[in-house]
Every structure is written in structure tokens, then in C-alpha cells.
Amino acid sequence: MKNALITGVTGQDGSYLAELLLEKGYDVYGIIRRKSCLDYGNVEHIKDKIKFIYADMTDIVSLINAMKVSKADEVYNLAAQSFVATSWEQPITTAEIDAIGVTNMLEAIRLTNTKAKFYQASTSEMFGLVQEVPQKETTPFYPRSPYGVAKVYGHWITKNYRESYGMFACCGILFNHESERRGKEFVTRKITDAVARIKFGLQDHIELGNLNAKRDWGHSIDYVYAMWLMLQQESPDDYVIATNETRTVREFVEIAFQRINIELVWKGMGINEVGLDRVTGKTLVSINPQYFRPAEVELLLGDCTKAEKKLKWIRNISFKELVNRMVDNDIVIIQKELNI
Q1: Is 245 a catalytic residue?
Q2: CB under 8 Å to 175, separation ≥6 — which residues?
Q3: Which of 19, 125, 180, 254 is labelled catalytic?
Q4: Residue 135 maps to a domain
Q5: 125 is catalytic
Q6: In angstroms, rounded to a whole number, what is the distance separating the alpha carbons of residues 230 and 119?
Q7: pLDDT at 294 over 90
Q8: Band of the pLDDT at 297, cuts 50, 70, 90?
Q9: Could you tell me the CATH number of the domain that includes residue 16?
Q10: C-beta atoms surrounding 257 within 10 Å
Q11: Is the pLDDT of residue 114 over 90?
Q12: Is 205 annotated as a binding residue?
């Protein structure tokens, strides 16, 4: 039996990873921050199966203690300030968690003299203003947000510890991945939640930013499996995890509305563009300039050939199924709220 330590265990990826590791017989330890009101987030349903440790990515002493308590064989660093928009409002906090926090975790492993394997959650946002299409492991980084910049630091410090100290440290450059557990501050969940509310008459329309931004979207369940595969290899390496497909925010919206039998038609241009219900003519989607990023990332498209060949990784959930699952889940949530 192996011991695994997960930072960010209460998040979307952390919860799916915890489920996967528990199924494989691991003893799972999860780091949570001490709060006045304890919140188990996405692991509420399995909280009795996880051993929680109070620690913080900005406090190396607490991370050293977490390593000693967990005696981890594998460490998955998923903790991050991961909302790009917030990184513009809180750039220092983002750097402390997403950059320095990675160094703290690596140091905690090194200073406790463990042989723990380490996984760092890198991100496609590091590519930013993309230098080639599609993006692969060797594509130069050009981050376009404080979040992306901090993640580049975390990525490179992980590679440095691997090469300097011989640590088994991997970076997974994960492209956009969503799920029913995604927070509502993210545009994908914002869309599916709004669609469910519109279905039940609780909301009139949804306001969005750049409809033409292109992303490579997969499901978190598939992506956490890739994380685990990376730490089962004979030698550490870095991998792009993606779908090899790019979709616009507009496509995501269209499929979400199709799930409730509404077909959208688009009229107007730029900030004046609106999405109308083809049958009723009612405006269901409008543009709000406040949701545009200061520096937009227009296109992300990952090449996961290396992961497919070396890790034997495959993706099971398609883009359309991803959107449908998110909409269906939000419909169930609304039905519970309304006691339907």
C-alpha cells in the first residue's frame, strides 16, 4: 500500500484524484488550510476516507510536517490560486502560492530526505501568446497573466529540482479541463449553471466576454488519471495533457443550450453581438466588456502525442459529453433547490 499526499485536495482535480487513488488502495492524505469554518469542498462525500493535515503552501514548516505525518510515496501538488481573472486582482498572492509555494513543497520533500515522487500541476496558460500551433512540451512559454507567469516559475523550479537533486519530479502541462465540480467563477460552469437556471425561469440571460477565445477542453476525470500515470513511470518527465481539439467559448455555449433544446442564432458584431433563441427571439446571451482579460489568450491547442505514446494515456469523455454532463448536473442541483 502506498501513501499519497495531495495539496488542493478539496478542489475539482484533487477530489477526482483522491477517488482514483482510494480505488487503487492508497492511503490518501490531503492538505487543507485551517479556517474558522471547515470546508471539505468536493471531497465532502469521501472525507471519512481521507486523512487531513492542516498546512499552507506559504508555510514551509507546515509542509515539512505534512511530509513527516503522511510519509508520502507520491506527492501531487494541485494547490493553486487557479482563477486567471483573480490573478490580475491578487498578483502577489498568486505568486506566493503558485510559484513560491511549489518551491516550499519541493524543499519539504528534500529536507525530509524522502524518496517521494512529485507531480506539479503546470498549465496551458503558460503558453499564453502561443509561439506554435499545436503546443507541445518543447513549445516556448509566453504567459499572458500573473497566473501564467507564476505557473512558469513553478514549472521550471520543478525541472530544476529534478535535474539538481535527482528528484523524481514531473510536470503535467494540462490544458483546460472541466467537470461537474468546477467552481462557478470559471466561464464553463458559469455557462452551464446559467443554462440550468434559464431552463427553470430563474435567470433571463447570461453575460459573457470573448466568445471567440479558443480552448482545448477535456474532463478532469481523464486528466487526473494522466497525473497518476506520470508517477508510475521508471523515470520522471514532463507531458502535455490535452485533447488535440480546439473549441470556442461560442461552441461551448451552443452545445449547453442544445442540451435544453434551445438553438441559438447570433446577431450583431463585437460587444453588440447577442445570442437569440431561434424560436422565441429572446436574447439569452449578451457581451459584457468587463469580462475581457487585460491580455487575452486567443488560442490554446495541445499536442498530447507524447503522453499517448509513453504513458499509454487515452481520453474517454468527449467535448460534447463533458458539456452535457455539466448541464445535466446543474439541472439536478436546481431541481433540488426547487424541490422538484
Answers
A1: no
A2: 124, 215, 216, 217, 218, 240, 241, 242, 243, 300, 302
A3: 125
A4: yes
A5: yes
A6: 8
A7: no
A8: confident
A9: 3.40.50.720
A10: 25
A11: no
A12: yes
Q: Are 53 and 32 in contact (CB under 8 A)?
A: yes
The mean pLDDT of 99-115, rounded to a whole number, is 96
Count of structural domains within the chain: 2
Residue by residue, DSSP assigns 32-64 as E---SS---GGGGGGGGGSEEEE--TT-HHHHH
* Burial (Cβ within 10 Å: 0-12, 13-18, ≥19) of residue 23: exposed
DSSP letter for 280, please. Answer: T
Choose the catalytic residue: 10, 94, 123, 192: 123
Task: Kindly report, residue by residue over 176-199, the tens digit of the pLDDT.
Answer: 999 999 999 899 999 999 999 999
pLDDT band at 221 (very low <50, low <70, confident <90, very high): very high
pLDDT digits (tens, 9 = 90+) for 205-217: 999 999 999 999 9
10 annotated active-site: no
Sign of CA dihedral 49, 53, 58, 61: negative
Q: Model-level pTM? A: 0.95
Confidence (pLDDT) at 320 = 98
In the chain, which ranges are continuous DSSP H helix?
A: 12-23, 60-70, 84-89, 91-95, 101-111, 146-165, 187-199, 220-230, 249-258, 305-306, 319-338
Integer Cα distance of 12 and 218 in angstroms: 13
Residue 36 has pLDDT above 80, yes or no: no
Note whether 127 and 23 are same-domain residues.
yes
Question: How long is the chain?
Answer: 340
By residue range, what is the domain housing residue 324?
187-214+247-298+318-338
Number of Cβ within 10 Å of residue 178's Cβ equals 24
> Is residue 295 scored above 80 in pLDDT?
no
- Please give the average per-residue pLDDT across 108-130, as a whole number: 96
- CATH (domain of 193): 3.90.25.10
Catalytic option among 29, 119, 147, 225: 147
Report in angstroms the alpha-carbon separations of 323 from 210, 242, 243, 278, 329: 18, 16, 14, 21, 10
